[in-house]
């Protein structure tokens, strides 16, 4: 996802997009039930970027910008937001399946913050991030990894 977007780092939004794109995991199904598919997440991220730039006085329409040109010669590195979400995922209670970093645990880690690009994009999409996180944590507690 990061390479496709022309990003030099893999951030939380790329991980969220990848979770939604898998479609066969309980995390992807939970996202879809909340109206979050790869396409709707991309649209929400685009709106978030437009809104963030507008705050800085920059008016831009994402659909009018040229597509990113991925640099196939470089592998994106793990970004700070991904490091943080992985830490949160590993620390997420319950400790069922501790050490196993599956899609549902990663989803809990992504949703475990009120700040950042993903949280702003989910707010812009009208998604109750806290409720979705609670559902994901309950599913994790029930052993659905």
Q: How many individual β-strands?
A: 2
Report the structural category: mainly alpha
- The gross shape turns out to be globular
Radius of gyration: 15 Å
The number of distinct structural domains comes to 1
Task: Write the CATH homologous superfamily.
Answer: Clp, N-terminal domain
Instruction: State the distance separating the first and last CA atoms.
Output: 23 Å
CATH topology: Double Clp-N motif
Major sheet strand order: 1-2
Low-confidence stretches: none
Q: Helix amount, in percent? A: 40-55%
What CATH architecture would you give?
Orthogonal Bundle
- State which percent range the strand residues make up: under 5%
Mean pLDDT: 85
Largest sheet: 2 strands, parallel
Query: Could you state the order of secondary-structure elements as H and E?
Result: EHHHEHHHH
The first-level CATH class is given as: Mainly Alpha
> Helix count, per DSSP?
7
């Amino acid at each position: 996802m990061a390479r496709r977007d022309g990003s030099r780092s893999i951030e939380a939004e790329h991980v969220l997009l990848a979770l939604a794109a898998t479609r066969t995991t309980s995390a992807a199904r939970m996202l879809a039930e909340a109206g979050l598919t790869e396409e709707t997440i991309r649209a929400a991220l685009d709106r978030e970027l437009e809104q963030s730039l507008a705050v800085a006085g920059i008016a831009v329409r994402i659909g009018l910008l040229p597509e990113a040109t991925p640099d196939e010669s470089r592998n994106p590195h793990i970004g700070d937001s991904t490091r943080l979400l992985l830490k949160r995922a590993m620390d997420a209670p319950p400790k069922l399946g501790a050490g196993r970093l599956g899609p549902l645990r990663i989803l809990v880690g992504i949703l475990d913050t009120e700040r950042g690009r993903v949280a702003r994009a989910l707010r812009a999409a009208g998604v109750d991030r806290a409720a979705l996180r609670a559902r994901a944590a309950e599913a994790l507690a029930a052993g659905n990894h």
